[in-house]
Amino acid sequence: MIIPAGNLLDTNVVSEMMRPNPNRRVAEFLDAIAREGIALSVVSAWEILNGIGRLPSGKRREDLAFRFRSLLDDVFEGRVFDWSLEDAEACARVMEAKRRCGESLDNHVPDAMIAATAVRHGLTLITRNEKEFRNTGVHVVNPWKMTPVIQLRAAPREGRSARQ
């Protein structure tokens, strides 16, 4: 069962959270939106696990695996969106819309999958990769660029249409 959330974190935001000293602006932003609820796509979980799995055996790999497992248990318990047929249909629509804009996501399928999850569930996508998610129908917020107070006022309510 998914616990209600208003925000979906992209993989780059989760990676930032796993750093020993995350960007202060990003950390403050995430603290500010915590009450709205943050969630993770199973696609982002795969991207993180795949990245960790590519590292050579050793302390760094073990530390990252531990940090990610801690985030899953402490922050995202009950807030990881699985991939479904409805998500696949939404993803096909996202990719079609991007192609029509001349901004194909054919080489960024995981991003299209994450966008589809956000669109389907009416979530704001928190990411650094604004370009990939432009024209997908999802509201995007870049925590590296904006302060938490501004973001909270600008964040859409569930079901609000995307801003470019």
How many helix segments? 8
Order of secondary-structure elements: EHHEHHEHHEHEH
Return the average pLDDT rounded to an integer: 87
CATH top level assignment: Alpha Beta
As for the number of domains, it is: 1
> In oligomeric terms, what are we looking at?
single chain
Structural class: alpha/beta
Assign a percent range to the helix content. 40-55%
Classify the fold: give the CATH topology: Rossmann fold
Characterize the biggest β-sheet: 5 strands, parallel
Q: Which strands sit side by side, in order, in the main sheet?
A: 3-2-1-4-5
Residue fraction in strands: 5-15%
**What's the CATH architecture?**
3-Layer(aba) Sandwich
- Counting DSSP E segments of at least 2 residues, the number of strands comes to 5
Q: What is the global morphology?
A: globular
The CATH superfamily title = 5'-nuclease
Strand and helix layout:
Elements: E1 7-9, H1 11-18, H2 24-33, E2 38-41, H3 42-53, H4 59-74, E3 80-81, H5 85-100, H6 109-121, E4 124-126, H7 130-133, E5 140-141, H8 148-154
Parallel strand pairs: 1-2, 1-4, 2-3, 4-5
Q: Concise description?
A:
The chain is α/β, with parallel strands linked by helices and 164 residues long. It has helices spanning 11-18, 24-33, 42-53, 59-74, 85-100, 109-121, 130-133, 148-154; strands at 7-9, 38-41, 80-81, 124-126, 140-141. α2 (24-33) crosses α8 (148-154).
